[in-house]
Design a protein that fits this description.
The complex is a heterodimer of chains A (292) and B (238). Chain A is built from eleven helices and eight strands. An eight-stranded parallel beta barrel of chain A has the order 1-2-3-4-5-6-7-8, surrounded by seven helices. Chain B has 238 residues and is α/β, with parallel strands linked by helices. Chain B has three domains: 121 residues, Rossmann fold (3-Layer(aba) Sandwich), CATH 3.40.50; 62 residues, no CATH class; 31 residues, no CATH class. Chain B has a four-stranded parallel sheet, sandwiched between helices. A three-stranded antiparallel sheet of chain B has the order 1-6-7. Chain B is globular and about 65 Å long. Classes of the chains: A alpha/beta (292), B alpha/beta (238). At the A-B interface, helix 5 and helix 6 of A face helix 8 of B. The structure holds iron/sulfur cluster (2 copies). One iron/sulfur cluster binds next to helix 7 of chain B.
Chain lengths: 292, 238
């Protein structure tokens, strides 16, 4: 049984982390990052060619986490695989003992480091969730019986800062109908906006895990505001970062992440910490956020 | 219409052998609207090639308004009107879309052809010289649910159930100049009071209807579309 599922089902406040596979074969240091937070989080997401940049696979990395006793959340995107490959990879994941899958559309190929690649998008994320639900039921997408079937705990993503928010919420409802059992969100910095979003979707009765991205610099915050959809870092936070001495920047990053965690906690069932290489800060964030 | 853009002269020249006798063929319909191969551009291409030392033995285009991709019209031009030159030609440089290129092969009973254009998409001619793509010819139109706007074309990820999280200020994540197709669809559905259409679930696309090559055969009031999804026959009689 997925511990993530168990914890969310019994109403615990969960913490999850995230790692990205290596660009190459040198995976050890990536696994070590996960080891660092192993006892602090219930599960660790593994990204799937994030930003359409070629890396080693999410599935293999999830498997290695699993072997080290770390529960993975297998991120799976629709960008690079058609419906045959998606279903096949889901079956493979289950065979390898992976229980959680996060179903994503995926960033467009043109944004990555192989912009001439053929974007697949045979499915959208709603289709992928539905396919996973159908596999869970012992069939494949075209109705054939499976010889042994998975029982995934499948999640999806939503962007609470999207403008307009209405189509996001409509799609979120479709994802729930297709079998999404939990949601991870785009990075939250504007807590008020997040609270409003949660009020709008409360009726869905599905656990929401708020995305918390560690702020590494004021520049990073401004960059995200300008370039990344659905992210709104308030001016106050940017100023705070600006006024921090370089030597204190990690301390400040911890302080902000912990504060955001405390602030979003009343609205959600957990926090997904995206520490972008600064995984060693997670224990401090947790301590300062006063959650355990 | 099929939008086309001429290949660069340097590229075209790489296709041609020294002393190859070339006949330039143009199209008076789409290629004329794109200024890539109408009667004027066909004549112009013949002259440009001659200046580069190419042995051009003739040129012709279907008349304004007539597509080269109509085999009867193409035959008329190539066989009835210009038979001698066509017989003398080693090959045909076609200033038209890929359909036109194949029509020339058919009209000349297997003649040798060179593409003079890149065929880039099927589009709406806003005005001569300005063409924009609104349909990807997928074989089964879903725009009844999307306020007439094609998600297979206007959404960079061909999503069917609503927007991804990548849109910013109504623009798509792939290019901040490009409208997010789903934002456009959402606004039009909302304005029309039809957001329930966005709430409905849509199955994955049947890509077998988007297999290639496909064909259409019309007999009387019955039309049959053939693809890897099988034959789909529709009658105009109710
Ligand atoms: S859905 Fe789009 S690509 Fe398909 S026929 Fe309609 S407009 Fe064309
Ligand atoms: S931003 Fe809009 S148009 Fe671009 S891929 Fe996402 S939904 Fe499609």
């Amino acid at each position: 049984m997925s511990s993530l599922k168990e914890k969310l089902n019994n109403g615990s406040f969960v913490l999850t982390g995230e790692i990205g596979p290596p660009k190459g074969t040198d995976i050890e240091k990536h696994l070590e990052k996960a080891e660092l937070i192993k006892d602090k989080v219930v599960a660790v997401n593994v990204t799937d060619l994030q930003s359409a940049i070629l890396r080693a696979g999410s599935l293999a990395t999830c498997h290695l986490l699993q072997q080290r006793g770390i529960e993975p959340v297998y991120q799976l995107t629709c960008r690079d695989r058609n419906r045959l490959a998606l279903q096949s990879d889901l079956l493979s994941a289950w065979i390898l003992g992976i229980k959680n899958v996060l179903c994503l559309t995926g960033d467009h190929t043109s944004l990555g480091d192989h912009p001439e690649a053929k974007p697949v998008f045979d499915f959208d994320s709603v289709h992928l969730l539905k396919a996973s639900s159908i596999l869970n039921s012992g069939k494949d997408l075209t109705g054939h019986d499976l010889d042994g079937s998975p029982n995934f705990f499948q999640g999806a993503v939503v962007s609470p800062g999207a403008d307009p928010i209405e189509p996001q919420i409509i799609k979120m409802k479709k994802k729930v109908a297709a079998g999404a059992k939990f949601f991870q969100t785009q990075a939250v910095f504007d807590v008020e906006q997040f609270g409003e979003f949660v009020n709008k979707v409360n009726g869905l009765q599905v656990p929401i895990i708020a995305g918390i991205v560690i702020l590494k610099s004021a520049g990073m915050a401004s960059y995200m505001n300008e370039k990344v959809a659905g992210i709104n870092v308030p001016d106050g936070l940017i100023k705070e970062m600006k006024n921090t001495e370089k030597s204190d920047i990690k301390k400040k990053a911890v302080e902000i992440a912990a504060r955001l965690t405390r602030q979003v906690k009343p609205f959600c069932q957990g926090v997904h910490l995206m520490t972008l290489g600064w995984e060693e800060l997670i224990p401090d964030i947790i301590e300062q956020a006063e959650i355990s | 219409m099929h939008a086309t853009i001429q290949k660069e002269m340097d590229v075209i020249l790489t296709y041609l052998q020294p002393d190859e006798k070339i006949y330039v063929v143009g199209c008076g319909n789409c290629a004329e609207k794109c200024k890539s191969g109408g009667p004027e551009e066909t004549e112009e291409m013949a002259q440009r090639l001659e200046k580069k030392g190419v042995n051009v033995i003739g040129y012709s285009s279907t008349p304004s308004g007539v597509g080269l991709c109509s085999l009867p019209m193409c035959r008329k031009m190539m066989i009835e009107e210009n038979l001698d030159e066509n017989n003398a030609a080693d090959s045909f440089l076609v200033l038209a879309c890929g359909q036109g290129i194949h029509t020339v092969i058919d009209a000349t009973d297997g003649g040798e052809v060179h593409p003079g254009c890149d065929t880039i998409f099927g589009g709406e001619t806003e005005q001569p010289g300005i063409v924009k793509e609104y349909c990807s010819l997928c074989g089964e139109c879903v725009t009844a649910y999307t306020a007439g706007l094609c998600p297979m074309t206007l959404c960079s990820k061909m999503l069917l159930n609503g927007p991804c999280g990548g849109a910013k200020d109504g623009k798509c994540e792939v290019d901040k100049e490009k409208d997010c197709g789903w934002h456009l669809i959402y606004v039009r559905l909302k304005d029309a009071g039809k957001l329930h259409l966005l709430e409905a679930y849509y199955d994955p696309k049947n890509f077998a209807k988007w297999s290639r090559p496909r064909s259409l055969v019309v007999k009387g009031t019955e039309a049959t579309f053939k693809s890897l999804a099988g034959e789909h026959t529709v009658s105009r009689e109710d």
